[in-house]
From TrEMBL:
Pfam families on file: COXG
Stretches the record annotates as Disordered: 1-28
Identification of the protein by name: Carbon monoxide dehydrogenase subunit G, CoxG
Coiled-coil blocks: none
Record organism: Natranaeroarchaeum sulfidigenes
Annotated SUPFAM superfamilies: Bet v1-like (SSF55961)
Length: 176
C-alpha cells in the first residue's frame, strides 16, 4: 500500500460548538493498487459477503438495495469497545469508475455516533491493475469523542489499511 495520509480538519474559529466539532473530525486520503481490472474489482467490492470478509470487525453486511448497505461492526479503540449499527448509501455512482457514499453509524453502549462522507475513484494502470484512490471525512461524537484524536485516527488508519489488504488477499489469489 502507498503511504497512508490522514489529516485533521482545520481548527474552527467562532463559537465553542464549531471548535468542538472540528476536534471530532478526521480526513483520510490515499490510493492503493490492486492486481485486478476495474470491472472485476468493482464487482468484488459491490458484494455484501465480500465486504463482510474484508471490513475489520464486520459481523454482518447486508445489501438492502443497489445503493444502500447496512452493517454491524465491532471494534476496539484504546480501552473502548464499540459495536455499531450502520448504514451506507451510494449517493453518486458511475460504475465502475467512481462512487460517493454517505454513511452513519451508532453505538448504543457508548452513545457514539459516526458520520462519514467518502469518495472512491478507480483507474486502470499498467495492464490489468487498478488504482483505487479514496478520500473520507469522518465526524464522531459521544463516548468515542472522549478519546484522544490521535488514538481514533490511528485506529481508523489501521482499519483502512487492513480493509485494502484484505481485498488484496481475497481478490489477487483468485486470479492465479
Amino acid at each position: 500500500m502507498n503511504s497512508q495520509e490522514s489529516t485533521d480538519t482545520a481548527e474552527g474559529e467562532g463559537s465553542g460548538d464549531e471548535a468542538e466539532r472540528d476536534d471530532t473530525q478526521l480526513e483520510f486520503e490515499d490510493s492503493v493498487t490492486i492486481d485486478a481490472g476495474k470491472e472485476e474489482l468493482w464487482g468484488f467490492i459491490s458484494e455484501a459477503q465480500n465486504l463482510a470478509q474484508c471490513i475489520p470487525g464486520a459481523e454482518s453486511v447486508t445489501r438492502e438495495t443497489e445503493r444502500r448497505y447496512t452493517c454491524e461492526v465491532t471494534r476496539g479503540i484504546s480501552k473502548m469497545t464499540i459495536s455499531i449499527d450502520g448504514e451506507l448509501e451510494m449517493v453518486e455512482m458511475n460504475e465502475p469508475d467512481w462512487i460517493v457514499a454517505d454513511g452513519e453509524a451508532f453505538d448504543s453502549t457508548t452513545g457514539s455516533r459516526f458520520d462519514v462522507l467518502a469518495a472512491m475513484e478507480m483507474s486502470e494502470v499498467e495492464g490489468d491493475r487498478t488504482e483505487l484512490a479514496y478520500t473520507a471525512e469522518l465526524s464522531y461524537s459521544g463516548g468515542v469523542a472522549s478519546l484522544p484524536k490521535l488514538v481514533v485516527r490511528k485506529a481508523v488508519t489501521s482499519d483502512l489499511n487492513s480493509y485494502f489488504e484484505n481485498i488484496r488477499t481475497e481478490i489477487e489469489p483468485e486470479r492465479e
